[in-house]
Amino acid sequence: MSDKNYILAIESSCDDTGAAIIEGNKILSNVVASQKIHEIYGGVVPELASRAHQQNIVPVVDQALKQANIKKEDLKAIAYTRGPGLMGSLLVGGSFAKSFSQSLNIPLIEVNHMQAHILANFIDDANIDKPTFPFLCLTVSGGHTQIVKINNYFDMEILGETIDDAAGEAFDKAGKILNLPYPAGPIIDKKSKIGNPTKFTFAKPKIEGLNFSFSGFKTSVLYFIQKEQKNNPNFIEENIDDLCASIQRSIVNILMDKVQKAIQQTGIKQIAIAGGVSANSEIRERLLEGEDKFGWKTFIPKFAYTTDNAAMIAMVGTLKYNHKIFTENTTKSVAKYHI
Q1: Closest CA to 116 of 306, 269, 330, 324
Q2: Cis link prior to 84 (omega < 30° from 0)?
Q3: Which of the four, 15, 56, 182, 274, has the lowest number of CB atoms within 10 Å?
Q4: Helix (H) or strand (E) holding 320
């Protein structure tokens, strides 16, 4: 048995099965098995996701251990995603983590998936610089859009969040209207680079405070496309790049307006990003532009730590291990789990 604090982390909140090994703040392995089957359905099918997790979890954990060049007996604790997420998927990861920790007689650590996205910024190779407390984090994913104030590792306050669709849903639903394959976000991002972002305009929600709304925007895109197709059935095909660029610019404008407002209200000029949609190139570019325009400091983790992955679960795991914050084997997975 090693004297180093190796921790195994398991992520299974949606359709990616992840396992990672961390020692200190350094990731030694980060393995992800993605599920392609959902593409033909245009979205994640929960039952298919949980079945695939059952098939993937053992080989993914085995690969994580091998890549880290350690044995299971070297592990000091096991961290896992308790929630939020799809209940069936969470149960697979949680059940495995509980059984494995019990068989090895080592502590079990439950992790909030959304906190993990934020704290991924503290992985050794995530950023050149690390944010200092307090800082703000724009968390954007398929299921969540939030602005969070981080006072310390375990004290986070949601300042604003979506009241309906998340930004990731807005990308995917707009993509479906444009007949793009799922997931549409990366495709829209790619096509936006050669399109005109000011060619078309869509409704901008008027939501008080720091909350977000994307349902009205999605409806605006749908009605606009339906109207144009009545006059020209080939409207989408003839304007796809400009449509993608205009849709992306509209979504990012909504996000950036709230970020600026949050900075003005709090006086905090450190802004980090997290979540799968934070991989979007325009979000990153606009935040970096804000450093010169508005004087804030931006923290953007490497791509591998923005999408769902076990490395971010491992980061929280090592922080909780250092503070001896463990959980009972009877802890239940939860589909909704607030920061």
Answers
A1: 306
A2: yes
A3: 182
A4: helix 310-322
The encoded tokens of residue 38 equal: 């959902």
91-105 pLDDT per residue, tens = 999 999 999 999 999
The answer to whether the CB of 238 falls within 8 A of the CB of 232 is yes
Q: Cα torsion for 288, 289, 293, 295, to the nearest 10°?
A: 10
Structure-token pair, residue 140: 């954007």
Band the pLDDT of 176: cuts 50, 70, 90.
Answer: very high
Q: Bridge partners of 334?
A: none
pTM, two decimals, is 0.93
Residue carrying the six token digits 């059940």: 95
Instruction: Look at residues 293, 303, 281, 257 and name the one whose alpha carbon lies nearest to residue 194.
Output: 281
Amino acid sitting at position 254: I
Please write the tens of the pLDDT for every residue from 28-40. Answer: 999 988 656 546 5
